[in-house]
């Protein structure tokens, strides 16, 4: 990855400060450590992670030389209850950037997965520091499988994951993808900052492959199945159960049934 070239391609403030590491434990952890000392829009980028974190305590497989692992430090002046919108914003930005660079039909599976067909290409882990109902900072952590050979992953990862190269056989420029993603974050973060939720949520809905589908959601409280109806104004998923009851879900793992 060429940091000077990434910077030369930037159109906004996000990414003006980039901290690049060959190896880190987790870019999210480094970003949280330095957040108080750096500017908003600063980025921690690494070639590989030894303790890549996924959602729900999972591991994010982070081989060197092939993928993108980065975390962006943000300080949105919004209430913590709207924090899901940071993930929504990041997924819209990443999906838009990946579509632009590759032309692939990248879609969003609620809340934070970018997929091609049914396989996961990119995951987003947003972490927050809050105090007295205020967000002190947010770290939007983005992992994109770019040129990884999925055949080299373990069987359980192989069955659910893909990479850009795995889809097309093309080796993509990580430099270009990082720059384009940061440009889209810059654009969509502006929309979030002014709380233009209509624009943000309607773009998410346009890129979503979740709404209108029969889904199964595994939550901390159990498993639900039903029709994914809509997102509410906080980015929660509304599901119509077979009983007709509508439930609002704040976190969980979605499987598209049909
Ligand atoms: C998920 O889908 O479970 C979220 C995966 C998030 C992975 C990224 S890679 C960069 C950043 N640093 C981490 O440790 N995790 C996120």
In short:
The protein is of the alpha+beta class. The protein has helices at 3-8, 27-34, 84-102, 155-158, 164-168, 174-193, 197-207, and strands at residues 18-24, 43-49, 68-74, 107-109, 113-116, 119-131, 134-144, 214-219, 222-231, 237-241, 246-249, 253-256. Helix 3 runs antiparallel to helix 6 and helix 3 crosses helix 7 (197-207).
Listing every helix as H and every strand as E from the N terminus to the C terminus, the arrangement reads HEHEEHEEEEHHHHEEEEE
Q: Radius of gyration, Cα only, in angstroms?
A: 17 Å
Q: What is the average per-residue confidence, as pLDDT, rounded to a whole number?
A: 94
Count the domains: 2
What is the oligomer described by this structure? single chain
The helicity comes to 25-40%
By secondary-structure content and strand pairing, the structural class works out as alpha+beta
CATH architecture of the largest domain: 2-Layer Sandwich
Gap from first CA to last CA: 39 Å
Q: Please write the CATH class name of the largest domain.
A: Alpha Beta
Basic shape? globular
State the low-pLDDT regions, or none: none
Number of separate strands = 12
The major β-sheet equals: 7 strands, mixed
Question: For the record, what is the CATH homologous superfamily label of the largest domain?
Answer: Bira Bifunctional Protein, Domain 2
- Briefly note the CATH topology name of the largest domain: BirA Bifunctional Protein, domain 2
Neighbour order of strands in the largest sheet: 1-2-3-7-6-5-4
The number of helical runs is 7
Strand content of the residues, in percent?
Answer: 25-35%
């Amino acid at each position: 990855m060429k940091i000077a070239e990434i910077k030369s391609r930037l159109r906004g403030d996000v990414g003006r400060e980039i901290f690049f590491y060959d190896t880190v434990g987790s870019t999210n952890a480094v970003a949280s450590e330095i957040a108080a000392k750096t500017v908003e829009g600063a980025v921690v980028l690494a070639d590989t992670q030894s303790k890549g974190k996924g959602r729900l305590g999972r591991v994010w497989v982070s081989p060197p030389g092939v993928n993108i692992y980065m975390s962006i430090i943000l300080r949105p002046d919004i209430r913590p209850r709207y924090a899901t919108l940071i993930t929504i914003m990041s997924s819209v930005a990443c999906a838009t950037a990946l579509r632009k660079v590759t032309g692939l039909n990248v879609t969003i599976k609620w809340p934070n997965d970018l997929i091609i067909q049914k396989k996961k290409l990119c995951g987003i882990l947003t972490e927050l520091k809050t105090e007295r109902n205020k967000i002190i900072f947010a770290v939007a952590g983005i992992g994109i499988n770019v040129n990884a050979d999925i055949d080299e992953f373990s069987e359980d990862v192989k069955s659910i994951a893909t990479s850009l190269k795995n889809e097309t056989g093309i080796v993509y420029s990580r430099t270009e993808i990082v720059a384009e993603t940061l440009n889209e974050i810059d654009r969509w973060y502006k929309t979030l900052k002014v709380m233009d939720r209509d624009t943000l949520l309607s773009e998410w809905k346009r890129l979503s492959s979740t709404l209108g589908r029969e889904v199964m959601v595994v939550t901390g409280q159990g498993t639900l199945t039903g029709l994914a109806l809509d997102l509410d104004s906080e980015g929660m998923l509304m599901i119509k159960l077979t009983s007709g009851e509508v439930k609002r879900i704040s976190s969980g793992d979605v499987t598209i049934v049909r």
